[in-house]
Design brief:
The protein is of the alpha+beta class. Helix content is 42%, strand content 23%. The two termini are 19 Å apart.
């Protein structure tokens, strides 16, 4: 299952990157070569890189065994090792004994957020050898 970035976020990053490149190129034509103009172009290229990376590698990938949050340094946890899920107003926090992954709800596409919520609500967590649903009020909490 893939949890996607919101299209609004990707389009904003793309537009902002193009705008910074245009400003830098305009500066080259207007005032010649300067470090300020190079800065605009470099920042624009970095912003475009972020947008293309987010379009190619979506926010979260859930496989049969792993929960992977894509970023410059991807974080992953084994699904079998998840022992707690905390619900906050704008995020989920999936915890294991050694690590945790925070999922920002604002970055997630609405349809994907519903799918993620459904997946997390059906996840059985094993604590001290007994299989339980960690948060019995998961469905009752306001998450969207």
């Amino acid at each position: 299952m893939t949890i996607r970035y919101s299209q609004k976020r990707i389009n904003f990053n793309l537009g902002y990157g193009i705008l910074m490149i245009i400003i830098g190129l305009f500066g080259f034509f207007k005032s010649g070569v300067s470090f300020f103009n190079f800065g605009w172009v470099i920042l624009g290229l970095l912003q475009l890189g972020v947008a293309l990376y987010e379009r190619k590698n979506q926010y979260i990938t859930i496989t049969d065994t792993k929960f992977i949050k894509h970023s410059i340094f991807p974080k992953s946890v084994e699904i079998d090792h998840i022992n707690n899920i905390k619900i906050f107003a704008n995020s989920f926090k999936v915890e294991t004994v050694n690590s945790s992954i925070t999922i920002n709800k604002i970055l997630v596409e609405t349809h994907s957020l519903y799918r993620l919520h459904d997946y997390l609500s059906t996840l059985k967590l094993s604590i001290d050898g007994t299989t339980t649903y960690k948060d019995k009020n998961f469905e009752n909490k306001q998450t969207l």
